[in-house]
Design goal:
Distance between the termini: 18 Å
Pfam families: APG12
Number of strands: 2
Organism: Anaeramoeba flamelloides
Structural class: alpha+beta
Protein name: Autophagy protein
Shape: globular
Keywords: Autophagy, Isopeptide bond, Ubl conjugation pathway
């Protein structure tokens, strides 16, 4: 889910990942998709529920159990600036 002034996907993209994958896999996947739109030195900020950024080594299974929708999907926000206070 894009937040602020960041590129949007032309089509909704659903990434199918394993519950044992670390959150870092999501960060790397989104960054790769938008790499041609990033200027040198720009990096994405990622968040769950627009309130916090999980540790890159936290498993997607744990995050989905705690913050997911119906324990099956996890909505991740991405921005070029911090999007929470």
């Amino acid at each position: 889910m894009p937040i602020g002034n960041v590129p949007k996907l032309k089509k909704a993209k659903i990434f199918k990942l394993r519950r044992t994958d670390p959150f870092l896999v999501v960060q790397q996947g989104v960054t790769k998709v938008f790499s041609k739109h990033l200027k040198k030195g720009q990096v994405f900020t990622f968040s769950l529920q627009a309130s916090f950024t999980p540790s890159p080594d936290e498993t997607l299974g744990n995050l989905t159990e705690c913050f997911g929708q119906n324990n099956t999907s996890l909505e991740v926000g991405y921005s070029l600036t911090p999007n929470y206070g």
